[in-house]
């Protein structure tokens, strides 16, 4: 399985000029990369960037109409966008996204032929209360409700412990490995072993160029979702290379 390395730019950078410069530097740096690389800039830059696989950071579950400020999956498909990140913890936290809404977005996006980076992960409080497995299982089961075996080919799961995102406190290899195994077992119980083995499970949370390789080589992850470090072209290119 080819690793998937995704850069989540979040609400950065501040101008289209900077976005294009960053994108072009990344494009140049990963020319010979063996991994699949996807860059996820803010919506407004999507139509201005090309030459690399692109992902959006969100979409909405209705097709069109009176939903001020929203972007539909079909609009993304029309721009030739390949991926969409759904269920990111920042959306769950700041925009109160529920598992049910995330599930509707996943199904709508799959229906439009988009590939999904479906984020799950426990908070520090849930981890301390020994509730990690329970939380991950609920997020997976509710997020994937009604997703068919065939559609699972377009699902990538990003395990992103909330306490590790943007904190510099990345999850250890051992703990990541046990979460990746748990996620795979949950997928196997929901679908079957083959689907579980073929579903890419990414790690995300303070990935840097000096810790990135170990998640793929030692923790059994099939890719990375990179936030902060994807805003520095050299660092992101190093991270892509470390996955090979
Ligand atoms: C993310 O936004 O998905 C993320 C993992 O951020 P960071 O790498 O900055 O922790």
Could you describe the 3D structure shown?
With 244 residues, this protein is of the alpha/beta class. It has one domain: TIM Barrel, CATH 3.20.20. It has eleven helices and eight strands. An eight-stranded parallel beta barrel has the order 1-2-3-4-5-6-7-8, surrounded by four helices. α1 packs parallel to α11 and α5 crosses α7. The protein is globular and about 45 Å long.
Q: Tell me the number of strands.
A: 8
What's the CATH H-level superfamily name? Aldolase class I
The CATH architecture term is Alpha-Beta Barrel
Q: Shape from CA axes?
A: globular
The name CATH uses for the topology is TIM Barrel
Spatial sequence of strands, sheet with the most strands? 1-2-3-4-5-6-7-8
Q: Which residue ranges are poorly predicted, with pLDDT under 50 across at least 5 consecutive positions?
A: none
Distance between the termini: 12 Å
Integer-rounded radius of gyration: 17 Å
Share of helix, binned: 40-55%
Ligand inventory reads: phosphoenolpyruvate
Query: So how many helices?
Result: 11
What structural class should be given to the helix and strand makeup? alpha/beta
Beta content comes to: 15-25%
Number of domains: 1
Describe the largest sheet. 8 strands, parallel, barrel
The H/E string reads EHEHEHEHHEHHEHHEHEH
How confident overall, as mean pLDDT?
97
In CATH's first tier, which class applies? Answer: Alpha Beta
């Amino acid at each position: 399985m080819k690793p998937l390395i995704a850069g989540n730019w979040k609400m950065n950078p501040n101008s289209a000029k900077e976005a294009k410069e960053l994108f072009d530097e990344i494009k140049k740096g990963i020319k010979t990369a063996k991994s699949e690389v996807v860059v996820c800039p803010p919506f407004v830059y999507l139509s201005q960037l090309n030459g690399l696989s692109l992902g959006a950071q969100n979409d909405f579950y209705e097709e069109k109409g009176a939903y001020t400020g929203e972007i539909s999956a079909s609009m993304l498909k029309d721009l030739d966008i390949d991926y969409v990140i759904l269920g990111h913890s920042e959306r769950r936290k700041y925009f109160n996204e529920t598992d049910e809404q995330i599930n509707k977005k996943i199904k709508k996006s799959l229906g439009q032929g988009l590939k999904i980076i479906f984020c799950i992960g426990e908070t520090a409080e849930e981890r301390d209360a020994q509730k990690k497995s329970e939380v991950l299982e609920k997020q997976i089961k509710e997020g994937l409700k009604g997703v068919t075996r065939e559609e699972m080919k377009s699902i990538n799961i990003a395990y992103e412990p909330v306490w590790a995102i943007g904190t510099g406190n990345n999850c250890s290899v051992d703990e990541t490995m046990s979460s990746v195994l748990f996620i795979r077992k949950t997928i196997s119980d929901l679908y079957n072993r083959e689907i579980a083995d073929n579903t890419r499970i990414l790690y995300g949370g303070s990935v840097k160029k000096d810790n990135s390789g170990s998640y793929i080589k030692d923790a059994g992850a099939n890719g990375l979702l990179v936030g902060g470090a994807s805003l520095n072209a050299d660092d992101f290119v190093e991270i892509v290379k470390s996955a090979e």
